[in-house]
Specification:
- The protein is an alpha+beta fold and 202 residues long.
- Helices cover 34% and strands 13% of the residues.
- It contains 8 helices and 8 strands; from the N terminus they run ααββββααααβααβββ.
- The chain has helices at residues 6-12, 16-33, 72-75, 79-82, 120-135, 140-144, 163-169, 177-183; strands at residues 39-43, 48-50, 60-62, 67-71, 153-155, 184-185, 191-192, 199-201.
- A two-stranded antiparallel ribbon has the order 1-4. The chain has a two-stranded antiparallel sheet with strand order 2-3.
- β6 and β7 (191-192) form a beta hairpin.
- α7 (163-169) packs across α8 (177-183).
- The two termini are 25 Å apart.
Length: 202
């Protein structure tokens, strides 16, 4: 709803389990859409044939010795995995309602499978602690009364962000690749080309 912020929704949850689950989902959804590492380069050691996802086009051959760019941002927005909300920031995407047993895959911010980054859980723990501190969730007063003021407040006008940045965050859809290229820097990490100004108050 208009004027209702995500931080307020998290703070309003009295049940600690529900609050932790939503906070975890927020972190995973942010990683999916906006991974700090945008991809990796690999050189093929043999010919690889990629099948068409819907059999509408011919398979793609990647010859041995080619450099291949695995783009994490694109993989995290695959409609085949995330449906018609693939480009949308959905804070509760990774919560587990009893009526839905389907678990959507995490993004690739920390790799996957046997190559998963060993620091993934520690990094997420640090991110969780920072968010909880900013929202004042570590305070017993907040646990007893969610209407207590957060310890740190961030003020800014998100509507003034360029469209490419808003698309990167999952806040705006149908943005042309040219706008992404114009408003975002890709290396060494993907980030807005120009500063995003936020006022921090305690």
């Amino acid at each position: 709803a208009s004027g209702c912020f995500l931080g307020d929704k998290i703070r309003a949850l009295v049940d600690r389990g529900e609050r932790s689950e939503l906070l975890r989902s927020v972190i995973l959804e942010t990683e999916r859409l906006s991974p700090p590492v945008v991809g990796i380069m690999r050189r093929t050691t043999q010919d690889i044939i990629l099948a068409s996802p819907d059999d509408s086009t011919a398979p793609t051959l990647i010859p041995k010795g080619w450099d291949s760019w695995i783009y994490f941002v694109g993989a995290g927005r695959d409609p085949a995995q995330y449906g018609n909300t693939a480009e949308n920031y959905q804070p509760a995407r990774y919560t587990r309602p009893e009526s839905d047993d389907r678990t959507q895959p995490e993004g690739f911010a920390f790799g996957a499978g046997a190559k998963t980054c060993l620091g993934r859980n520690v990094t997420r723990m640090i991110a969780t602690t920072v968010i909880e501190t900013c929202l004042g969730l570590e305070s017993e007063k907040v646990l007893q009364d969610p209407n207590q003021s957060p310890r740190i407040k961030l003020d800014g006008d998100a509507s003034q962000m360029p469209s490419g940045v808003r698309a990167w965050l999952g806040w705006q859809q149908d943005v042309a690749p040219e706008q992404w290229a114009k408003h975002m820097k890709q290396l060494p990490t993907q980030r807005p080309r120009n500063p995003v100004y936020v006022q921090v108050r305690r």
